[in-house]
Amino acid sequence: MFFGLTIEKVMVIGVIAALIIGPERLPRYAEALAQFTRRTREWVQGARTRVKDEMGEDLDDVDWRKLDPRQYDPRRIIREALLDDAPPAPAPTKTAVRRTTPLARRTFTADAPPPFDAEAT
Fold first, then answer.
1. Can you give the pTM of this predicted structure?
2. What is the pLDDT of residues 76-103, one digit of tens each?
3. What is the mean pLDDT of residues 53-79?
4. Contact of 114 with 108, CB cutoff 8 Å
5. How far is CA 6 from the centre of its chain?
6. DSSP secondary structure, 21-86, as one string
7. How far apart are CA 19 and CA 24, in angstroms?
8. Do residues 76 and 68 make contact, with C-beta atoms less than 8 angstroms apart?
9. DSSP labels for 75-87?
């Protein structure tokens, strides 16, 4: 089924609903559910006919399997993108900057707190 519901779960929900609703109101609710199902089926059928009317004969030419989102594997897409035959990017050149003085270690006390930049936070 859909939404993670199985037949067993639907049956348990139906039994609990029948117990809560009671035998007096159960026929009315069953009729309302049947009308809702009928209206939904008519709405879906109307949507299908509208799509066929608007798409025309091109609707039969669409390969729906190709558009199925379940076929997309992110690993395959990344692998194909990485193994693409694009020309390799030039390697960046690194120039090392040598420090002439060692870094000085500064200690801070409660009287002299470390510097604070109000614009950085």
1. 0.42
2. 888 888 887 666 666 666 666 676 676 7
3. 80
4. yes
5. 23
6. H-TTTHHHHHHHHHHHHHHHHHHHHHHHHHHHHHHGGGGGG--TTTT-GGG--HHHHHHHHHT--P
7. 11
8. no
9. HHHHHHHHT--PP
